[in-house]
Every structure is written in structure tokens, then in C-alpha cells.
Amino acid sequence: MKVRILRQQSPATAPYWEAFTYDGPEDNSVAGVLDYINYHDDIINADGERTTRIGWECSCLQSVCGACAMVINGRPVLACDTFVRDLKGKVIEIRPLRKFPVIHDLIVDRSSIHENLKQASMYIGEYQPAADGSHSQQYTVAKCLKCGLCLEVCPNYVNGRTFFGAAFANDCYLVASRNRARGMKIRKTYAEHFGKTCSKSLSCMEVCPMKISTLASMAKLNRSRHDPE
Hints:
By secondary structure, the protein is of the alpha+beta class. The N and C termini lie far apart (59 Å). It is elongated, with a radius of gyration of 20 Å. Helix 5 runs antiparallel to helix 6 and helix 5 crosses helix 8. A hairpin with a 2-residue loop joins strand 8 and strand 9. The protein has a five-stranded mixed β-sheet. The chain has a two-stranded antiparallel sheet with strand order 3-4. The chain has a two-stranded antiparallel sheet with strand order 8-9.
């Protein structure tokens, strides 16, 4: 099986495609495929040429950290949760997320996600839960990995400077539902950086590895606008 990877040595260099050969088991994940290619001291590409190790990020390899987010065969996914047996064709095509600056190969700078949360003062503070007791949605939203997959497919997210995306919207709901005193401010921030611009394509929900219903968070935030503070 051929593995095509869009590589980039540094932010200042141009990207280029490089192919490798994989003849391991089909039960392996794409994260395992990258490990397989990087395993030996001498890395050889499909043309028999010596090359450098592929740069990529990982931590848990169990779909709970989000570090290995990338685009595989045109779909934004987690490499550790994508298996060779489930991919169609004889070519695996891998490239970094496009909505973030590339640092090296498949490693991108996703710091804008956290910087936007800091800019909006997105913290819970003193726990003051809302009366509706939507614990199920709160629990689900709290599992957000900040992996960036939702932003990769979002037609409204460009560079994160004004529209902050689904991960931000879900955090708005989480904070507003757990601290009534900050609810009004959070809802205004939500409207400014998400609610007024979201086109509701809901592509974010299709790729979310945690199956978070951003639509439910939006509905609950909109409904809570009329709740007493």
C-alpha cells in the first residue's frame, strides 16, 4: 500500500508530497502506519531514497487527547482512530489540517483555539449551576478535545480572529450553564464570535470524535437568554 504525505520542513518552506510503502497489517491505525514508517534509523521513501522522519503529534493514542488530528483521504480525523481496513483504495493520503499554520509536516499550531478562550475569559469560576440541570449535555461538551477537526470543516472559520467556531460555542454553553452570574456576559461573547456568523452547516458535528451536539448547545444558549440572572 502506498502512503502519500504532504510534508513541509518549516513554516518558511514550501509543502511537497512524498510517498512511502506500507506492507503491515490492515488492523493497524494510521498512527501505527506513521510509526511503522518512522521506525528505522534510515527512513526510505517509495522511490528508494533516504529521507527524514515524518513529523506528527501524538499523546494518548486512544482518542482522548486530540493531538493526532489530521486529514486522511480527504477527511479530518484522528489518526489513532482511523484504521487501514476501513480506508478505500490502495493509497492513504495524509496532510495536515489546513486551518492552522504548519510547524513541521503534520504538526500544526492550534494555539489560536486556546488564545480565543483566554481572550473571551472563558472560565467557570464559582460553580453556580443553572436550574435546568442539563447534566448530560454539560458532560458531553466537557469532553471536547480542542483537536480542531470541527474548525477544519467549518465554512465560516478562516483564521480564528473573529469567528471562533464550534469548540468555542460549546465552551460558552458549558460556562454559562455552570455559572449563572457570568451567563449574560458569556452569551454576548457567544453572539459576537459565533452566534451571529454561524451558517449552521453542522459539518462540525459530523467530524467531532466526541460526538458533541453543537446544535444542542446553541439551542440551550438561545433559550437561556430569557432566563433570569
